[in-house]
Amino acid sequence: xxxxxxxxxxxxxxxxxxxxxxxxxxxxxxxxxxxxxxxxxxxxxxxxxxxxxxxxxxxxxxxxxxxxxxxxxxxxxxxxxxxxxxxxxxxxxxxxxxxxxxxxxxxxxxxxxxxxxxxxxxxxxxxxxxxxxxxxxxxxxxxxxxxxxxxxxxxxxxxxxxxxxxxxxxxxxxxxxxxxxxxxxxxxxxxxxxxxxxxxxxxxxxxxxxxxxxxxxxxxxxxxxxxxxxxxxxxxxxxxxxxxxxxxxxxxxxxxxxxxxxxxxxxxxxxxxxxxxxxxxxxxxxxxxxxxxxxxxxxxxxxxxxxxxxxxxxxxxxxxxxxxxxxxxxxxx
Length: 333
Prior knowledge:
This protein is of the alpha+beta class. It is built from nine helices and 13 strands. The protein folds into three domains: 2-90, no CATH class; 103-174, Phosphorylase Kinase, domain 1 (2-Layer Sandwich), CATH 3.30.200; 181-331.
């Protein structure tokens, strides 16, 4: 028997089912759905050293008793035969030393200690000398440029986005979460990648599809503004990596009350600030915004608010940012 915990509260038992519905990461109707969610927290095949996640005195987490500890949330699995798992505070990498990944040995493709820190590029958790926890991503210089440009523009425009700093071939992103606010990716709700892609594709990559995806997670009006704002900003920086990738859509969940709120934007290393979005992407976004008067009104209010900031951010039009803004503005007239 095993129990899914949130901090020291029991959430789900493999024998008895749901214990605390409001703190469940997603809706668990049966053991099959729980196992499907748990699978998302399994260590990636490329994640060769992630099983040694947390040092507890001289003991390393037993491989047979994978606790699924994370630096994105406060969930973990307590196994019946795991005698070392006395409480959350003694285990969590938020409060305890964790094994950092050494890039010098050439072992790329790992993420430590987070089981669900996925993605196509090598990344690792680090704790800086000042105590701040960051995700270090190894990227090509062009990707570092695109991500930092996107994040800096978001800051300029007053859009909530993750904090980061760059170092030539890597970028360090400060952990957005803590012991109170947990990051819940939308991918947990939709299951497999094919299910995620088909959900968006079958709905024409529309804005309304993503708003509907947040049904029951965020209040409708808040979901509308968040989705439209994110869609517009992704268009401007030509970020193609969120359109059918639900892991890049996230929200915060309170670890004590289960209440939710919008999370900052993150993951822009596949943006192309010196390019236009793909033609089909342009059409899908503009058509879906024009299909609803309310969506169009919200979109135009954001675009009008951002114009001056984009011009000031790139006054010489070195990038395509303002051109992409204009494509949106003219498409919505």
